[in-house]
Structure formats: C-alpha cells, structure tokens
User: What shape does this take?
Amino acid sequence: MLTDQFAQVFRGEHRTLRDAFLDIMSAFQRRDTTALAHLIHRAIVCAGPHCRYEEEALYPALPQFFEPDYIEILLIDHDWMIGVMKQLHVFSKQAQLTDDDVHLAVRLARSMLLHISDCEGLSIMVEQLSPPVVQSILDARAWSLNEGLDLLQWAEHVRGRPYLSPQAV
Ligand SMILES: [Fe+2]
Ligand SMILES: [Fe+2]
Assistant: This one.
C-alpha cells in the first residue's frame, strides 16, 4: 500500500537523522572533530531533501487535520534546525572546543530530536490522505532527492524563509 511505502521511507529518514544527532552528541562529548565533520555532513545531506519535500508537499497536505498554528510550528522547527546545523558546523571547524561550546553543542543537537520525534508522528495522519496526495508527497520526495540540495544549500538558495540562529535566542 502507498501509505505503508510512505511510512517506511519516512521512518527510515527519521531513523538516519535520529542516529546522526545521537552520534553528533557523543562526538562533541569526545571532542572528536574528525567524526563530527562526517556526521554533520551526513545529517545535512539527509535533512535537505527530507525537509524540502515535507515543506513542499507533506505539510501543505495537513491543514485538514491541524490548526494553521501547528503547521507554522513545524516550519519554525525547520527554521531552528537550519540555524542549529549552521552553528554545529561552525563548532566542528573550531580548532578548540571549550567546555561551554561542548555543553551548548550537545544541547542544540539534543533539541533536534524533538522535531524528529514529532515529525515521525505525522505518518499516522498520512494514512488518512487520499492515494493521489500520498503519491504527490512521494513524487516530491523523489525530485527533492534527485536535486540533492543539502539542508544549508536549500535554506540559502531555495527555501525563502529566514532561519533561527541559536545565537539570537
Ligand atoms: Fe520536518
Ligand atoms: Fe521529518
């Protein structure tokens, strides 16, 4: 079934992101900058097409279930994710990480788990969408993957919403 196919790929992407952020947290705690560069790259490569098809096709299909405020919260979660990934990227390039840097980086990476967990729950609502709408989400996923913009490239060149910088919060 189409919704099963969707749930499977959606879960797989959230699992990749969950594991990347858990690994990023422990790499910061170890101050393992070699691993961090690789892990942050993995996270932004997965999150780019994922967040893109969510915003272009999945979230616009949800207003029949949720108040507009909740859709906006999902988008703000992405604004935050982009700002956090930019900051984690900066930390990973630093020659030295202070205890405060590590503490903040771990908190920021942990904050990513909230949206991953909330977003995974949307699968149960997708089961209620019509097959053509589910297909349109899968199609958006396919072209987002095909274009292959990572999270920061997409945010900078395509997305058209400001991100939330952790430094401004
Ligand atoms: Fe999302
Ligand atoms: Fe998601």
